[in-house]
Amino acid sequence: MIEFLMSFWQTYNTLFYTVLVHGMLALSIYITLACGQLSLGNAAFMGIGAYTAALFTMKLNAPFGIALLAGGMLPAFVALIIGAPTLRLSGVYLAMATLGFGEVVRVAFLNMSITGGSVGLNGVPPKTELWHLFLVMGVLIYFFLKLKNSRFGRALEAIREDEVAASVMGIKTTWFKVWAFAIGAFIAGVAGGLNAHFTFFLSPREYGFDFAVDILTFAILGGTGTFWGPLVGSTILTILPEMLRFIGPYRLALNGLILVLVVIYLPNGIITVKKKD
Amino acid sequence: MFLQQFANALALGSVYALFALGFTLIFGVLEVITLAHGAVFMIGAFAGLTVATKFNASPITAILVGMMASGILGWLIDLLAVRPLRKRKFHHLAPMIATIGCATIIISISQGIFGAEVYRFPFDFMPTTSYNFWAIQLTLLQIIIVGVALSLMLIIIFLLNRTKWGKAVRSVAESPRTAALLGIPVERVFQLTAFTASALGGAAGVLTGINFNAIHAFMGGPIMHRGIAVIILGGMGDIRGAVLGGLILGLAEIMSVAYLSSDFRDAISFGLLFIILLVRPAGIFGSNIERKG
């Protein structure tokens, strides 16, 4: 039995790590969706975080914690710059700006020498331990539990339900939206840093639009009424492809189909919250 | 030299304009940012390529077939993914997410069918004649691209401004509910718009395929980013703005490649988009944007 468990763990521990990282990414887009905004740049933020953290540990020999923090701060800072002009406007502008931004980041990774160009970065030191992932996930769950009934969380919910009404009530809508976006970028960056230190290899191709759609699908499938939704969605969609290996190249088509069907037939996702009247 | 670059920019920009025109038309009338427009564009290019290689079709036939294929695809996307959301009142991001799903499905299936290879038009598909005007050398290809793109745009603008159909479309764009009260078949206008706008995307696809002679499953991505920048630049839903914005972006890209470096090219559209959001989010022709929730 013990032997079986050991070999099972040997085969699937990477998958387990990935489930946790994808969960963090799903939460990173959830916080923008929680105020009715769509960010298509979270794959790019993850990429910035991954490269930053990896360069910190590889080039500067920085402690892992510092590297992860840097990997979260830089995307958050970039998000503030993009978010400030964009989030004054209606929701579609953020989606379009982040879509373009993702492309710029990909081109930048490809052309900069410090990121290794099209070859990427090889030999990132293995530093991520399981307890790191549990710790970060625990902190995130605590944060989102507290968020729900906090001033910040209530402001986000008010903005999602009706932005005009929220602003009339005196909520500084742009300010809250920009911070939600930056926090999402921070989470995605840290997730990227953690991911880089157990896959040991970074390629600019991993952080493109396809992965942004993956992240979006995690959240939409699970439902965005509560933060448990994205976690459930990401877990299902990370484990499912392992069981459906035979669909191979059509995995993305499956993602697309899930997006369309869930938006049409299951607009609240799998995890639905009962509304209090 | 400068004039020659200008001619090249016109050819590139008119294709961007054609693509963005369809994009902005769908937004103006259906109020959906259809992120499947790039995939629709790619299918148009493949349809044109298929008739050109299998049936030795002429460039004009290839363009017409590409438009037809893209038009039908765009109509199907509207029918299957957007229309169900239109009937119920939904968050404004829902249709956009549905079109992302459609794009992913189309691109993934095309990749499954055509692989990751780059396809080319037959060698003798387009004669390589060129003409000299003063100091400018124009290829027949450039003349055809500009000619086709401009005439399609003029046709659309004529239809919108001078015909009964155009009047119906404009009134639906103003307010679907009022248009319905006035007896305009709103649903039919929506579907017709989706078809027409996607057909324009298909024409842009075939023209781009001929221009760069490279057709592949992912060719819709880069032009999608440019289309987004163009419609924000021109003002969302603004027809003149899309045309002018496309030409401006074409010019900016060609000039940056000529005088700066080609590494910048893919970043130009985002740079423009970001600047316009910073200084004039309503676009060139737009009036102030109302803050909608």
Provide the fold topology.
The complex is a heterodimer of chains A (277) and B (293).
Chain A: H1 2-33, H2 42-59, H3 64-86, H4 91-111, E1 121-122, H5 130-148, H6 151-161, H7 163-168, H8 173-199, E2 201-202, H9 209-222, H10 228-243, H11 251-265
Helix pairs in contact in A: 1-5, 1-8, 1-9, 1-10, 2-3, 2-4, 2-8, 3-8, 6-8, 9-10, 9-11
Chain B: H1 2-30, H2 37-55, H3 59-87, H4 94-114, E1 130-133, E2 136-139, H5 140-162, H6 164-174, H7 176-181, H8 186-212, H9 220-234, H10 239-259, H11 265-279
Antiparallel strand pairs in B: 1-2
Helix pairs in contact in B: 1-5, 1-8, 1-9, 1-10, 2-3, 2-4, 2-8, 2-9, 3-4, 3-8, 5-6, 5-8, 6-8, 9-10, 9-11, 10-11
Would you kindly provide a written description of the structure presented here, covering whatever features stand out?
The complex is a heterodimer of chains A (277) and B (293). With 277 residues, chain A is an all-alpha fold. Chain A has a domain at 26-208. Chain A is built from eleven helices and two strands; from the N terminus they run ααααβααααβααα. Chain A has a two-stranded antiparallel sheet with strand order 1-2. The radius of gyration of chain A is 19 Å and the shape is globular. Chain A starts with a helix and ends in a 12-residue tail after the last helix. In chain A, 51% of the residues are buried. Chain B has 293 residues and is mainly alpha-helical. Chain B has a single domain, classed as Orthogonal Bundle (ABC transporter involved in vitamin B12 uptake, BtuC). Helix content of chain B is 74%, strand content 3%. Chain B has eleven helices and two strands. Chain B has a two-stranded antiparallel ribbon. In chain B, a hairpin with a 2-residue loop joins strand 1 (130-133) and strand 2. The longest helix of chain B has 29 residues, at 2-30. Chain B starts with a helix and ends in a 14-residue tail after the last helix.
